[in-house]
Amino acid sequence: MASSSGLDHVGVCSRDAAALWGAYERLGFTLTPLARQSRGDQPLGTANRCAMLRRGYIELLAVVDPALPDNGLGALLDGFEGARILALGMADSEGNLARLRRAGLEIPGISPLSRPVEPGGPTARFERLPLPDAPEGRVQLVRHLTPEAIWQPRWMEHPNTATELRAAIIVADRPAESAARLSRLSGLALEPDPAGGFALPLPDGARVRVLDPDTAAALFPGLTPPALPAVVAMVLGVAELDRARRALSGVMHLETPAGLMVPQAEAAGCAVIFAP
């Protein structure tokens, strides 16, 4: 049966493109060139830059032209800015669409999205299956039709040595409900999180953790959800923790048992934990 293949990306979103992209460059990421998005033949008023990892990536998405359609991003940002997108990978769009419809989800169809990778370069194309009305934000399955266009070696080497998107952290006042939505979308089984709450283990080795506010605050000091439920943090695996520490020398961060934690205020609303 079709199901999710892994943790594809976390999307951090803002109306201030320069501040968003600058924040992640200060964290030691090499970002892809600015890419304007489109939906089919329709230009959109949104653009992104990404931190590509060997497994997964971070999307940094902003509204750059309010006069154009924004594919719903403005409505998300009316709630709050930060990690508004959680994307799980898939290899079979049609199979997952059929599975989700059998589960009773009203999904109109596969949503195409495309963007140029860089001026004069190839176009990256995707297929999306968004979870309707998810209170966590834009939670979706995504299939990359042109993975070679964005996973290029020149964009996967970072001064902070980040190599993989290891986990996304959701804080929820009703963790069981948020976790059940993820299980339904992904087609995968939940398991208890060792700290309390729930975890969705994914085939690529990554996971999504769904925690209550007290548990999250105990694990990640100072973590403050802007709403409940919300994606509030991501965990990145790094090749060399000492090099990551040096890359963060000019940024406020905490040494925690989970790794080097950059608080939300320094990372455009989404805490980033660099873990060995």
TrEMBL record:
<protein>
    <submittedName>
        <fullName>VOC family protein</fullName>
    </submittedName>
</protein>
<dbReference type="InterPro" id="IPR025870">
    <property type="entry name" value="Glyoxalase-like_dom"/>
</dbReference>
<dbReference type="InterPro" id="IPR029068">
    <property type="entry name" value="Glyas_Bleomycin-R_OHBP_Dase"/>
</dbReference>
<dbReference type="Pfam" id="PF13468">
    <property type="entry name" value="Glyoxalase_3"/>
</dbReference>
<feature type="domain" description="Glyoxalase-like">
    <location>
        <begin position="7"/>
        <end position="185"/>
    </location>
</feature>
